[in-house]
Design goal:
Layout: H1 19-40, H2 48-69, H3 76-98, H4 100-114, E1 120-122, E2 125-129, E3 137-142, E4 145-151, E5 158-160, H5 162-167, E6 179-183, E7 186-200, E8 203-213, E9 220-222, H6 224-227, E10 232-236, E11 239-243
Parallel strand pairs: 4-9, 5-8
Antiparallel strand pairs: 1-2, 2-11, 3-4, 3-7, 6-7, 7-8, 10-11
């Protein structure tokens, strides 16, 4: 017996009930979802712009839902399943958007633990975690160049290592190393310079007094010529807080 041709196959059943019934069901589901979300996030209806944005999104959701429900080849159960999937995606996106600030703060904390020199911005403050040995190291932007400093309240100026000074465009041959600095290793000669801009997080100062060290250094020092321009800085346990 010959196999039946494609014309003999039965078409998939159409959704039972009139089309407008499914539209009403979809509208009720959207209404329940909106009422639930507004109860969770009442601030979303505080102003006219927020309300208009919500209406636009609801109109888009209704259009998508209507196109799914009215598709003649979809069974009712499959249409309902697809609608629930899209609703779940929408709720997930809304929750992710509402928690974006908390997620960003958590990311900053994790980054500060993994990379202590990056610090953590807390509003306008910058919080640094101590490294091994109790030293605080911070990466600053100096005239657009990233420079890593060790915070040193005993240094009167910002002290640049010869390597970092070269990265910032200072030529040692054109500098005068005529200023003596007392350090833990004795007297060291340095060349006074001015730095145009130092930025750490949201904290930024212009025209900062600095010096280029005459001897090699492992790390540049963030001294009092920067720290004294802060409103305050505070060490609590293994954390240093810088306040603009």
């Amino acid at each position: 017996m010959p196999s039946p041709g494609p014309w003999s196959q039965k078409p998939p059943p159409h959704p039972k009930g009139p089309p407008w019934l499914w539209l009403v069901v979809g509208a009720l589901l959207v209404g329940v979802l909106v009422a639930w979300l507004v109860s969770l996030f009442p601030e979303a209806m505080d102003d006219e712009e927020s309300r208009m944005r919500l209406l636009r999104r609801l109109a888009l959701l209704a259009l998508v839902g209507a196109s799914v429900i009215m598709h003649a080849r979809l069974r009712p159960k499959k249409a309902f399943k697809n609608a629930m999937i899209w609703i779940a995606i929408g709720v997930g996106l809304l929750l992710a958007y509402s928690l974006r600030h908390d997620a960003a703060a958590l990311g900053d904390r994790l980054l500060a633990e993994l990379l202590p020199h990056r610090g953590m911005s807390n509003g306008t403050e910058v919080v640094l975690n101590a490294r091994r040995g109790g030293h605080f190291v911070v990466e600053a932007e100096v005239d657009g160049v990233p420079v890593r400093f060790m915070v040193d309240t005993g240094a009167s100026d910002v002290v640049l290592s010869p390597r970092d000074a070269g990265r910032l465009g200072f030529d040692p041959k054109r500098l005068s190393f005529d200023k003596a600095y007392r350090t833990a290793n004795g007297m060291v000669m340095g060349a006074p310079v001015r730095v145009g801009h130092i930025k750490i997080g949201h904290i930024a100062f212009r025209d900062v007094r600095a010096s280029v060290n005459g001897a090699p250094m492992a790390t540049s020092l963030l001294g009092m010529s920067f720290l004294s321009r802060l409103s305050s800085y505070e060490v609590t346990g293994d954390r240093l807080t810088l306040r603009p």
